[in-house]
Design brief:
Layout (H helix, E strand, L loop, with lengths): L1 H43 L7 H34 L29
Helix pairs in contact: 1-2
Amino acid sequence: MRAQRQSIAKQVAGRLFAAEEAIDIAVARIAELNAALPLARLDARLSAMIGQDAIQSSASAMLLISETREKIVITHANLKQASDAIGLTETSYGDLLKVAGDTSRPSGQHLRAV
């Protein structure tokens, strides 16, 4: 049963990481667009009124994607709690650096069983 749960958790984790990556790429691309729009207007020597609606809607998209990213981060935390609840606390799926303080490892211990 534990092996089956680990397999399922690994599949879910893979989808979660893919979603997180896709959202981060979308955040970056929208930010690039937001930076490019006013510079394009300046380069074209257009009135500030030209393209204001596009700048506003693109800025709104940035806010929405930021909120979406927050929801996925919360989902990640909720899935971590769920994995702990079903006894998968010692299993890690992924190679990303964890920035939230993991204080469960005693100092000097570099490896632990998973």
